């Protein structure tokens, strides 16, 4: 703004809101005005919720999930099959797979992928934690659910090598046509994977 | 989420973030994870900024602007020409006009437009406050800068009528072709207004 038209506290709120993914400078102003209009229903509760999350949030020392308890809700859930571990890149992938709601398994969050060009090596990811969990015994299957990108696949190969001698089954997500996807828009790699992995009707 | 995968504090944060305009349920999860990753740079400061805004924000009793002081930054700015009042529907319009940075005037926020169908009458808008400001004297011009919608124009007519006998100049924003606009995409109303208000080159 060319000249100050409102208090520094509100301008600071707008500046910080603009850093939230999904909001830019213009939508941050709109969001700030909406929050102020809904002061008691939204601004106050959201501020408190952020403060509470700030105080309580921790990363699970066991699997890398984000929670307010450590070990996290998933690791302490005894209705889950803790002998199956789904390995993901990021917490958002864990949450996405849980929304699918198919598996009742444990998780392990790597915190990224191997990327030598960006200086990300095995020690920068939570791979040692995964090997420790498997070495402790009781694990039957590792499902590697990293992204189907070059970095993801490199990471998957590396983990498979490291786990090879630990006597645990290692699987990966199936490649194929996304549900609702149109063949015409899919790349050759996906189509050839889907053809090779065709199933009987 | 089908099953709980994280603490209730974090789920509450996601639920509240989803109510912020510009964010939906999916982007609220993404935003929450980003905030948690940038705990000290973003989550903490944003929570504090919201708390501070919640405690300090007020609506200016003079013009209706949102600020942390009352009268607001605009009303107390003695470098502004307080004899010209720009009448807007909403605080966001005040901020938008200030970004244009053309006028160095005072403002008056109506808080909406007349809309009999929605039960919004003159008493629901801050029209009396405007008439009081003009009646107190010292005001030379009222620029009516409401939206160019049916409701906005109805409101403009009503205000013009109410101010008619107070001996103050009343103007409105020019209609015309938006800067950067293509004629082919403009409606007939805008084009005919732009033709009628043509200016010498």
Tell me the β content of chain A: 5-15%
Number of strands of chain A: 6
SSE run of chain A: HHHEEEHEHEHEH
Count of discrete alpha- or pi-helical segments spanning 4 or more residues of chain A: 7
What is the largest interface, and how many residues per chain? A-B, 62 and 62 residues
CATH topology label of the largest domain in chain A: Dna Topoisomerase Vi A Subunit, Chain: A, domain 2
- How many discrete domains of chain A? 2
In terms of quaternary structure, the protein is homodimer
Description of the structure:
Two copies of one chain form a homodimer. By secondary structure, chain A is α/β, with parallel strands linked by helices. Chain A folds into two domains: 8-56, Orthogonal Bundle (Helicase, Ruva Protein, domain 3), CATH 1.10.8; 73-172, 3-Layer(aba) Sandwich (Dna Topoisomerase Vi A Subunit, Chain: A, domain 2), CATH 3.40.1360. Chain A has seven helices and six strands, in the order H-H-H-E-E-E-H-E-H-E-H-E-H. The longest helix of chain A is centred in the first third of the chain and has 18 residues, at 39-56. Chain A is globular and about 65 Å long. The interface between A and B is large, with 62 and 62 residues. Chains A, B: A zinc finger (C4-type) spans 60-75. Chains A, B: This is Recombination protein RecR. Chains A, B: Keywords: DNA damage, DNA recombination, DNA repair, Metal-binding, Zinc, Zinc-finger.
């Amino acid at each position: 703004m060319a000249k100050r038209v409102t208090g520094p506290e509100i301008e600071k709120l707008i500046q910080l809101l603009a850093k939230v993914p999904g909001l830019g400078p213009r939508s941050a102003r709109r969001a700030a005005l909406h929050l102020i209009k809904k002061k008691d229903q939204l601004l106050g509760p959201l501020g408190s919720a952020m403060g509470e999350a700030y105080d309580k949030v921790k990363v699970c020392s066991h699997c890398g999930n984000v929670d307010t308890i450590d070990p996290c809700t998933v690791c302490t859930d005894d209705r889950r099959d803790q002998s199956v571990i789904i390995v993901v890149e990021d917490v958002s992938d864990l949450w996405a797979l849980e929304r699918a709601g198919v598996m009742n398994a444990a998780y392990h969050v790597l915190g990224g992928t191997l990327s030598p060009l960006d200086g990300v090596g095995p020690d920068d990811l939570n791979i040692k934690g995964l090997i420790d969990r498997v070495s402790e015994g009781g694990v039957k299957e590792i499902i590697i659910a990293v992204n189907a990108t070059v970095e993801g696949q490199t990471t998957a190969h590396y983990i498979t090598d490291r786990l090879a001698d630990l006597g645990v089954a290692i699987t990966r997500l199936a490649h194929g046509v996304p549900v609702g996807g149109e063949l015409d828009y899919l790349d050759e790699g996906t189509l050839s994977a889907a053809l090779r992995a065709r199933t009987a009707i």
